[in-house]
Amino acid sequence: MKKDHRRNRDDVVWSRFFWCTIFIVISCVLFTGFNFSSFRFLFFPPPERLQPEIVPRWRMDAVATAGGHGHDSPGKLDGKKKKVWIRETVILPDQVLLFLNYPPSSAATSPRLLTRDDLDCVYNFSSSPTARQKNASRPPNRVDGEIVRCPLLDRSAAVSLSVKSADAYAGGEVLLNAPPALAWHSLAYEALIDRDNTTVVFVKGLSLRPDKLYNVSRFECVYGWDFTRPKFILRSEVISIAQEIARCRTPLSLLTNPFNSSIKVTVRVKGRVTLNSVAQPRPNPEPEPGPKPHQLCICTMLRNQAKFIREWVMYHDEIGISRWFIYDNNSEDEIESEITLLTGSGYNISRHVWPWVKTQEAGFAHCAIRARPSCEWVGFIDVDEFLHLPSGQPLPEFLTNLTEGTGGLLLPFQVGEVRVACHSFGPSGLTRPPTKGVIAGYTCRLFAPERHKSIVRPEALNSSLVNVIHHFHLREGFGFVDADRARMVINHYKYQVWEVFKEKFYRRVATYVADWQDELNVGSKDRTPGLGTRAVEPDDWSSRFCEVNDTGLRDEVVSRFSDPLTGTLPWEDEAETMRQGL
């Protein structure tokens, strides 16, 4: 009996132990599977599949503390309700950028955007050992939407904004304090969410060499409101990285949550500090399926080119360009009003404020993403460059014949890029800017072409978006062809009269090109022979760079565009007509 009783008791103990073990194992499996699935859904969502959203606790906590950089809370200021506040400050080499944050607009409460007349830049020199005064104020260089550009008086001075207009705040003038300034040389500055739901991040401070892809395992992408607080950030993998462009896998919660409009993204080199950021990922709208509305578009980056843009747009419209993307790189002239006049006359132009210095390659990559939904082909040229087809054939027709017919040649790839040689024109004996425009004014050039520019099919671009200004890297299966110089060239009015040309000494826009005032790479082909590093006009400037008298494009323009009675060209008189019509 005792043995049977002991045996029964042992059976009960082992039975309980067995079922407890089974319960623990199943619980662990379920718990592990849930956490793995949550992690996978959050960071690695499969393409084109609807996944449930996991809302992490950090996001709810961070919403309550978002916006805190040690400066004024966005809600109140001295007991008054704020309508706008400064969310970021960035110090560039010659100016200070202040980013305004406006409250969400609605039909009932839509805040008026502040203008240059509403604001003063206020400087506090208390921390500067060399300053002779404690405070100073200056008008902004320019105000473009949420971006205020203030003069840089002293790099150690704290900059704030004085709002002068009574309707901006109840009670009259108010001082907007700014967060600590971020250094430009180490900063994520722009971000776009691409159509595959990856985030393209544009960043300074990685010190990557041009025209080269890097090992992604050294980097990671970081999303959040405050990168100094680890529990408020998300990390994701880098898919590709080159130059100043990183492509990141976007966390699913950012794609599905409407409260994520204030989240920023940056890039971290593993084992090193996370770079600061002002880059808020924004989606790039994609059109409805079907043919793209524009066969041929142009992207350009410019500074202070208002007096030249009218001729450039109107000429290219005549040869088949139908859409322009203008990246304004800190202009201080009337470029905005000129573009407004042109758009009012039916030209499809958008101006994108791009304050970032020496970022032309990044700007062109950004533009390629924006242009892709609506443009079959995109040309990347400057405002002093004009596409010239001596036969008079429309440019879209020429591209179609070249890329689909390829002159009877059988190519082992699809054509994704057409490279066009550039002829550089000189001052042509002039000492003052030509009144009829650059095409009619400059007619003498160098014999041999200098470099090339490209017209690309955005769908053919490599996902890394690597480019060296003149051309992009292409996807596998695509290649480039060179346009026959007898059929299409670019007239590059590079060496204009001195008062125009000397502006090139201010700053070169390309990332990997030294500014001409720097004693660096003095023998580079980018520099003008014999000028050195100072903007001093040579005695023989007006006769330089003249080896071939080339009036081909001038003769065509005069024949096709000039008024038969007055002989004037449309860009000579249309500006005044457009102004009178407004």
From TrEMBL:
InterPro entries: Glyco_transf_92. It is an enzyme of class 2 (transferase). One of its GO terms (molecular function) is glycosyltransferase activity. It is found in: Membrane. The chain crosses the membrane at residues 12-34. It comes from the Eukaryota. One of its GO terms (cellular component) is membrane. Its main location: membrane. The keyword Flavoprotein does not apply. Belongs to the glycosyltransferase 92 family. This is Glycosyltransferase family 92 protein. It comes from Linum tenue.
